[in-house]
Write the C-alpha cells for this entry.
Amino acid sequence: MVQTIQSIGEQGLIKLVQSYCPENLVGDDAAVFATAPGQSIVVTTDVLVDQVHFSDRTTPPHSVGWRSVAANLSDLAAMGASPIGITVGLALPGETTVDWVEQVYEGMRDCLNEFGGAIVGGDIARSTVRTISITAIGEVEPARVMRRSQAQIGDAIVVTGFHGSSRAGLELLLHPELGDEFDEADRQALIRAHQYPQPRLAVRRLLGQGNPIAGMDSSDGLADAVCQMARASGVGARIERSAISMRPALAKIAPEKALEWALYGGEDFELVLCMHLERAQAILPKLPSGAAIVGQVTADPAVLLVDGANMIAELSRDRGFQHFST
Amino acid sequence: MVQTIQSIGEQGLIKLVQSYCPENLVGDDAAVFATAPGQSIVVTTDVLVDQVHFSDRTTPPHSVGWRSVAANLSDLAAMGASPIGITVGLALPGETTVDWVEQVYEGMRDCLNEFGGAIVGGDIARSTVRTISITAIGEVEPARVMRRSQAQIGDAIVVTGFHGSSRAGLELLLHPELGDEFDEADRQALIRAHQYPQPRLAVRRLLGQGNPIAGMDSSDGLADAVCQMARASGVGARIERSAISMRPALAKIAPEKALEWALYGGEDFELVLCMHLERAQAILPKLPSGAAIVGQVTADPAVLLVDGANMIAELSRDRGFQHFST
C-alpha cells in the first residue's frame, strides 16, 4: 500500500523532513547559525506551484527538489554570493505520498551537497495544491556583490553556458514524439538540462578582483536578463546572434525554434555578466562549456539582436514568461 | 469595477509589491544587507494557506498580513533574536483582487513598523489557492540565544501574557451569536487578540544577563510549549491551574471552555520561558499585562496540571492542532 502523508500524521512528516536537516539546527522555533566576519547576508526566495513550475509529467520528485534549490542558488550566484542554507516551506494535500516528499528532499539535499548549504529550517502546511517555497540565505564580501545596475558602456556581455536547452528539454518531455528520430544522448542532454540545472556558483571564484561586474541569472530567459540589466544600468546592448551558444542537440532537434528558445525559453539558470572585454577574454577559458561573449553594452538604450552589421530585431522582455498575463 | 491581479499583470503586481520594500533592496536577484558584527543569524519560516490558517470570514486581509508576520517575529522572539527582515512568497489565483494584496502588504508593513524589520525580498506565483510563505531573518548575540532544551529543574515557568484569547476570538468570529449578550469591549478584545497578535520582541531586552533561559512561543498552545520544552530538556513540569492568566472577558464569555482554550487553543504567540525563580520574580513587573509565573520545572518527566497539591491532569501535545491528523 502506498503511504500518504495523511497516514503518517504531522509529527511523522516533521520527523521525516527533519532527518534532512543538520541535527544542531533542528528543534527550536528558528535556526541559529554564524556567518563569516565582514560578510553581508544575501537572501532570495522562490515559490513553486504544481502544474505551474513542475508537474509529474515533466519532473520526477527528485528533480522537483533539485530544481527548486538550484533556482535559489542561482540567484545567490547572480549576486556573487555563496550559499549558507535554505528554508523549505511545503504546502501539500493529505494524499501526497510519503515517497514523493522523500524524493523531493533527496533532490534538494543532493543539490545542496554539490553546491553548498544545508536545510536550516522549514514549515509544513495542508493545502489543496502542492506548493514549495524556498528561501536561500548566502553570504558575500560586500565589495564583490554583483548588481544588475552595474553594466558599463563598452562592457562585454558574457553567458556562462548554453541557452535554450531547458526549454527544449521541457518540450521533449511534453511531446516525446518530437525527438523520436534523434540520438538518445542528444535527447537526454536536453532533458537533463531541464530537470537538473546547474547553478553557477563556481563562477564567482573565477572572476577575481576588479571593477564591479553586472550580473543576473537567465531564469526568465537570456533576452529578459539582458533587457533588465540594460534598463537598470541606463544603457543598451547588442547581442550577436551567431555568438549565442546552444547545445548542438538543440539545433538538431528544433532548428527553427532554437533561437527563440535560447532567447526566451528561460530556466537555463546561466549567469549573464557584463564586464570589461579584457577581463571577459581572460576568464572565458575557465568557464563551463557553452560560456561565450555574446554581445556588448552600448550607449544607445535599445537592446538589439544583430547579425554583424545587420539589425535583426529589437529585444524586449514581453515575450518572456509572465505568470499573470492573459 | 474591482481590479484583479490578472488585470494588472505580473509586472503591475511586482511593482505594487515592491512599493512595500526599501528601495535599496529591490531590483536584483537577491537582497543584500549587513548584520552587526559578532551576531549570529536566526531564520524561521511559516506557510499560511487560505481556509487553513486564515479565511475571509475570520481575518480581513490587513489582519492576514499582520498575523503572518507576527507569527514569524514571534519565533524570532522565542530565540531571543531581533528582526532584520522578511521575505514574502505569495501564490495567488488570478482573480485575487488588487485590494486584497494591498491590504495584506499594509498589514505586514504595519507589523514590521511596530516590531522591527523590513520586507527584503519575495516572489509571486500563480496558484489555485492563496498561500503566503514568510521567512524571517533576525540576529542574536550568541550568548543570549534561548533554546527549548535549556530548562533546569526548579526553574519557574513564565508566560508573557494571557492565553486562550486568540481561540476565543476565533470562536466569536465563527459564531457571532456566541457573544451576543456580552459587552462589546470584551468581544472586541478577544477578536483583536486573534486578528492582531503581538510578538513579544520587547521581552528580550528585559531579561538581562545570566544563565541560559529556555524559551519557546505558544503558537501551538501553552500545553504544547511546556511539553516540548520539557521533552527537549529531559525534565517535567507542574502547571498551576489558577496561575494560568486569562483575560477576564474569556471567563465571562466561555467559562466552561476557558481552560481548554488557554491550554490548547494556540496562536496567542506569547513566550513561555523557564528561568530561575528569583530572576522571574524580578522581571515579572516589567512584562506585559497577563504575564505570570504559571508553574515549575520538575525532575519527574511528566507534565502535570495541578491545583495546589491535587493533580488534575497529565498534559500532552496530542490535543494541540495537528495539520495532517485525521
Notes: The first strand of chain A starts at residue 31 and ends at 33. The first helix of chain A runs from residue 5 to 18. Confidence is low (pLDDT under 50) at residues 320-326 of chain A. The radius of gyration of chain A is 20 Å.
